[in-house]
Amino acid sequence: MFKVLLSFLLCSVAAFASGGSATSEIPDLTMTWIGFASLIIFVIGYYFVAAEEKYEIDKAKPALFIGTFIFILIALYYAINDLDMNLVHVQAQHLILEIAEIFFFLFVAMTYIESLIHMNVFDKLKYNLVTKGYSYRKLFWVTGFIAFFLSPIADNLTTALILSTVLITIEKKRKDFLVPGAINIVVAANAGGAWSPFGDITTLMAWTAGKGVFTDFLYLFPAAIGGYLITAFLLSKFVPTEKPEFDASKEEVPVMAEGAKVVMGLGVFTIFCAVMSHQVLHLPAMWGMMFGLSLLKVYSYGLNRRHGKEHFNIFHSMAKIENNTLMFFFGILAAVGGLYFIGWLALASHVYSPDVLGPTWSNIGVGFLSAIVDNVPVMSAVLKANPQMGLDQWMLVTLTAGVGGSLISFGSAAGVGVMGKLHGIYTFNSHMKYAWTILIGYIVSILIWYIQYEVLQISHFGS
């Protein structure tokens, strides 16, 4: 409990409040009973989120509770003290709009992924990998590179789950392959997600908040892949060089369903629509995603007419979406929004000042907080606080929040997902044994960012 409390307080210290006119109209309630009650509720709730495995409680339940309850308490406080209730209403509406943009974006992305799973696209990928006759070390590198380049499209969690399934299919006992391989996938998925608005929820949040245009995030590619390669190179030294025993004759060859390639093409086009909506048409990115979903629904109708209703049912894909993940994001973002409304995120605005830590060291610290607290609430807190930073610093905090989540096994959704897939094999302790390799990669990523943005001065590119 103390660790979680300390982590959140440090997270608050890492935030910097913007001084817009709308903020000045909101009273500071931090030193009132509602201020302390909300903070305590958040800390206790987040403790149960972090201890999900210990108590066998889905993380969405405490997250959703604290997110909704904090705002109910705020409204109650305003009513009791005869404050302007319209402020609560307006802030809640703004928060709902912010959450909805991310919510529907993820909803469409998850629907496409579930559709491709139903059509055996990922089963085909898994079969192709395990039947190549690669050595353990070569499989280590292949799965890592696939994770790095798949996560910018499919998102880091889905990528990590798919490729960790490949690992456990190849080998079920040898921890000298499974543990480094699992860490490699987590690091690759998080690093790959850091340079694409579609690859990680934190990057998506920064993009939809207008902290950079789509092409700005692509300039994080050198830093992301540079840090990953260093970590992967160090990890690969612990991976055996012999080949796994695998009898392909006992495996059934998966066949992709009719129309799978078209669905893949529609998925790529949907991403294009999201980018055009946000960058050209000045609509929310989720608008383009929803348009892409409508195209998938139209195509599924055609498939049903040709092959029958059981061939592909898009509503079955929607039903398989991890709704607990969506509810978790709603709850956490609502809770952080409530703490911002109360005033907690403005407590240590001096931290980003050049006279104290300054933006660079503060943003580097965000990466370590992401590993402890989880990168979603940390990035949400920073965005809500909205420090006055240039594009280079917003790219740095996007990089550190994404990559920093790999430092501890439960610091990112990808890590938590792989812990579930490789239960008892990929654990907190097994991860920490190799954490030094991730730390070195994290430092290298920051150094590459520094060379790009501070030495070569490329921060104006794409703006």
Word description of this protein:
It is a single chain. This protein has 463 residues and is mainly α. Helices cover 72% and strands 0% of the residues. It has helices at 2-13, 21-24, 33-50, 52-55, 60-80, 85-118, 121-130, 136-154, 156-170, 175-194, 201-208, 214-218, 221-236, 260-279, 285-307, 314-319, 323-342, 358-373, 375-385, 391-404, 413-421, 428-433, 435-455. Helix 1 (2-13) packs antiparallel against helix 18 and helix 3 (33-50) runs antiparallel to helix 17 (323-342). The longest helix has 34 residues, at 85-118. The chain is globular.
Question: What descriptors fit this protein?
Answer:
23 helices, 0% strand, 463 residues, globular, mainly alpha, disordered N terminus
